[in-house]
Amino acid sequence: MQNKVQYYLGILLAAFVALLALFLAKIPFVKEVLHLSPLIIGILFGLLIANTIRSVLPEGMTPGLKFVGKRILRLAIVFYGFRLTLTDVWIAGWETLLVDTIMVVSVLAFGALVGRWLHLDRETTMLTASGSAICGAAAVLATEPIVGATSAKTVVAVSTVVLFGTLSMFLYPILYRFGIYNLTESQLAIYTGATLHEVAHVAGAGASMQGIAEGATAFDIAGTATIAKMIRVILLAPALIVLGAFFQKGKGREASVKAKRVPIPWFAVWFLIVIGINTLLAHVTSTYDFTSLYTTLCNGIKSVDDFMLTMAMVAIGTDAVFARFREAGFKPFALAGVLYLWLTLGGYFLVKLIV
Fold this sequence. Notes:
This protein is an all-alpha fold. It has helices at 2-25, 28-34, 38-50, 62-79, 86-92, 94-117, 122-135, 137-147, 151-177, 185-195, 199-213, 221-234, 236-250, 253-258, 266-287, 291-317, 322-328, 331-354.
């Protein structure tokens, strides 16, 4: 009975801290200046707990925290699909889809090569590469069960996303202000969406550049950048399926004897199905003039999903003590730095070539 109570206390701890993170993320300075998402605040709180009071918490709370970090996480990734529609891809055009696809595939492939060159373990390599390639912390969280990584490796990968994504969020508007980019507004928007790590980073950089334009252009830089980013998010599901097959194959002959087929990451498949459902809902409600109801429904789902994702971040953070960062060393950040250079420089020339 006591273990059962402690199990639910672990879940309640993650829920309480997640609510606190969501509250702090709404503070104007945090939201509009720092552009910190609830996910990032949640993992910071988790790290704080891990390195202060975690050792004195009842051990029976650990299974509850693990439930949040795995089961609740997968459910949250599925419901993330309600933020996206296939209409976004159609509106953005084939150029945006092509740029996003090339960037995602190239970052994952390049990351695997550089990780091997650095003698970095495959789990940390692919967590870092997926976070850089697709959608930051959410992609790292979605990749974690696919590659079977530990919480410590997940936190390290998220840290690289925060570092380099935040750097770009401030760097891109500065370069735009001083006329460094030789890009049209459309090219700039697609470049921003195709190369920045987090959705929050894209929104922050896009809004800043829109403000710098100050009416000189009627083009919606921030909106187009966000659409380009969301197309990258859609590519999360096929990327997870391919990674699942890759890691199963990498287990060698022993795995092939134990299992005759590659296990499918069903939460990634359901993620795609939810995007399809959301696309259909958007079309039907628009046709029959229920758009306001649809918007309210999606906003409600998004709020619940943000809460679940933040809970997962808290739970994962509580298992990562700073000593494990020292064990990870400099290599994950070196990998993330190399991928960052490819995103910013390679992405620039790719956009110039295609768009």
